[in-house]
């Protein structure tokens, strides 16, 4: 995620991609092209011998005037620049405002403050931040091959994208693990609010540590007619390439593997069996609610994976086959793959709005000033009331579990009070729990799968 966007845009007629300025939003794509790019600039006379990169041959002194036959291979027509600017502008606008509304919906409405939604706040914050502080800056740098934003922002530009992507993907991973624990082993205590904050804080600390080398080795280089922002690793491009392979594994491959395994198991559990035909309404409602949440999060994860895959493939291919950086259309390939990666920040609010009725009600409230948006009384109730209270749920859970097996002790002999015999008590009327007598056994055996103490339907809907 170093920033070196226009790897040799000014050459004798062949250059590297105007986009090869890496970044995981400026950071994943620079490394391997860096040495070649500097070498081409030396050949073009833009670098003096004193500024040659380590390991590169010494260059002859730079001429006082640029060579007349230097051309920019990657200059784009105005209409194409306008289209790319519009595409990136839409991503930034939707991502920033959409994710800020998600944060407001969760924090401003007590009913929305669940464990899962706290992680969604963290995910929305990281996505909004990356869209606001990185996307347009990196787009401008890739388009103009000129760094306009100073040395401090150069460090931030190379550092923050990895941090934000790490926080995003591991917030999704935390949700996947939390869903797994809640559904597969519901009797274990859930994360408390304090524990959730500790997990989120730990995610950001690890993200900072992973991205710190990008900040440490970021440099700007002022050259005749241009300023560059890039990452100069002590041991050269090989070290840079190794680092970013590690980054790809940690922010893409490993978390997606974890989420793939957990959601597969959860999906088999939720959709793999038949629902008992006449079980309690509470069972049906919570099962449907859990399915909706899991379905929504699976779509979020799959969207992230699809959006970032072309960008990672682009980085690996251009690093291994450096001749691709001279291809005529490589800048368009970079801009397209980078746009798709950055667009991942804008899809989540749309997914929440389409698949979750409470988020949909929240978006209606946020846009109720629009003439075509109507907020119904039902939408207001969705965010203000709680239909199932944890205390009532917990009592129902206890009664249902008690019905499946109740143990009493009676003295078997007056002379031996220490010995006792277990007797199964006659269960109470199963209709008390809302389930029919015919399926009370199946309902009780699945109660531990559906219910957990202190958990309400609000947690899942």
TrEMBL record:
Pfam families referenced in this protein's UniProt entry, alphabetically: 7tm_1
Keyword set, alphabetical order: Cell membrane, Disulfide bond, G-protein coupled receptor, Glycoprotein, Lipoprotein, Membrane, Palmitate, Receptor, Transducer, Transmembrane, Transmembrane helix
Domain named G-protein coupled receptors family 1 profile: residues: 98-352
UniProt xrefs under InterPro entries: GPCR_Rhodpsn, GPCR_Rhodpsn_7TM, Neurokn_rcpt, NK3_rcpt
Keyword Cell membrane: yes
Biological-process GO terms, alphabetical: positive regulation of flagellated sperm motility
Record field: compositional bias (Polar residues): 433-455
Topological relation to the membrane, as annotated: Multi-pass membrane protein
UniProt region (Disordered), positions on chain: 412-461
The protein's name: Neuromedin-K receptor
């Amino acid at each position: 995620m170093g920033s070196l966007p226009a790897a040799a845009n000014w050459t004798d007629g062949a250059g590297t991609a105007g986009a090869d300025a890496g970044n995981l939003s400026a950071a994943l794509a620079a490394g391997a092209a860096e040495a070649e790019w500097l070498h081409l600039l030396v050949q073009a006379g833009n670098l003096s011998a004193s500024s040659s990169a380590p390991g590169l041959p010494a260059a002859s002194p730079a001429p006082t005037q640029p060579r007349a036959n230097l051309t920019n291979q990657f200059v784009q027509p105005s209409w194409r620049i306008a289209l790319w600017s519009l595409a990136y502008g839409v991503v930034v606008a939707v991502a920033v405002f959409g994710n800020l509304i998600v944060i407001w919906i969760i924090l401003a409405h007590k009913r929305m403050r669940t464990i899962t939604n706290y992680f969604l706040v963290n995910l929305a914050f990281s996505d909004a931040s990356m869209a606001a502080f990185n996307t347009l800056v990196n787009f401008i740098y890739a388009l103009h091959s000129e760094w306009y934003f100073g040395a401090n922002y150069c460090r931030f530009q190379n550092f923050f994208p990895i941090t934000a992507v790490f926080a995003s993907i591991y917030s999704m991973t935390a949700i996947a693990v939390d869903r797994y624990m809640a559904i597969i082993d519901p009797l274990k205590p859930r994360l408390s609010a304090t524990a959730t904050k500790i997990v989120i804080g730990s995610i950001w600390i690890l993200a900072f540590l992973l991205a710190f080398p990008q900040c440490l080795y970021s440099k700007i280089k002022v050259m005749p007619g241009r300023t560059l922002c890039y990452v100069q690793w002590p041991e050269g491009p090989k070290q840079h390439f190794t680092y970013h392979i590690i980054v790809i594994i940690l922010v893409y491959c490993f978390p997606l593997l974890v989420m793939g395994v957990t959601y597969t198991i959860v999906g088999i559990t939720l959709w793999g069996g038949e629902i008992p035909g006449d079980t309690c309404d509470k069972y049906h409602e919570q099962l449907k609610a859990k399915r909706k949440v899991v379905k929504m999060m699976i779509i979020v994860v799959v969207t992230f994976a699809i959006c970032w895959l072309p960008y990672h493939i682009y980085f690996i291919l251009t690093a291994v086959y450096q001749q691709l950086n001279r291809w005529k259309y490589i800048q368009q390939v970079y801009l397209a793959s980078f746009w798709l990666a950055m667009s991942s920040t804008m899809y989540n609010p749309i997914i929440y709005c389409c698949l979750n009725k409470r988020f949909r009600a929240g978006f209606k409230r946020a846009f109720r000033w629009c003439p075509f948006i109507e907020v119904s009384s039902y939408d207001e109730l969705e965010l203000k009331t709680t239909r199932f209270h944890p205390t009532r749920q917990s009592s129902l859970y206890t009664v249902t579990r008690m019905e499946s097996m109740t143990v009493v002790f009676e003295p078997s002999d007056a002379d031996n009070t220490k010995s006792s015999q277990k007797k199964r008590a006659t269960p109470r009327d199963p209709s008390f729990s809302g389930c029919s007598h015919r399926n009370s056994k199946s309902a009780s055996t699945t109660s531990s799968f559906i219910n957990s103490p202190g958990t309400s339907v609000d947690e899942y809907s």
